[in-house]
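User: Some background: our group keeps a shared notebook of sequences we're curious about, and every so often someone picks one and asks for a predicted structure to add to the entry. Today it's my turn. The entry only has the sequence so far, pasted here. Could you supply the structure so I can complete it?
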Amino acid sequence: MSDAKIVIIDTGCANVSSVRFAIERLGYDVTISRDPDVVLAADKLFLPGVGTASEAMKNLEERDLISLVREVKQPLLGICLGMQLLGKSSQEGKEQVNCLGHVDADTSLMETGELPLPHMGWNTVTPVNNHPLFKDIPENSYFYFVHSYAMPVGDYTIGQCDYGKPFTAAVQSGNYYGVQFHPERSSKAGAQLIKNFLEM
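Assistant: Of course. Here's the predicted structure to add to the notebook entry:
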């Protein structure tokens, strides 16, 4: 499988290189690209994102990546904001930002009661129906989160987390997958999740 073509879609956001290092540490070669030929020929794709949805969508538009991501037939993993971009829309202040629409969900500000936002630090994720993305990851493993917005729990949820109330920590819709946490910053559990995605 190490001959697999692994591509991180060059979204221009800050966590691209840390995602690359996490994949390389597992012994895989990885390319960062926004060239349609390279992206569409990949075996596995990563869509990283940090920052605001409106800025990220603008970036994708400027780089002609919106239609490209829609053409993708192979497994794609959105990370953090990259996962939120897979939904229909994302709330920002009073604004709703239209996103890619691959997952039938809207991202909104988390309702956390007394708990502070952003939700930042380590938290456990409960996989749904033994999803293969969480294969060989011990129960109650901790993953690293930094976010204030989240998708509600729904049919698309393959992993959930609780912070004030439950939210979607991992998602799947067809060939589109997403994780709200940062697997590249989640030590052994995160490395195993990336490995699972690459080997699925």
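Suggested note for the entry: The chain is about 25% helix and 35% strand. The chain has one domain: 4-197.
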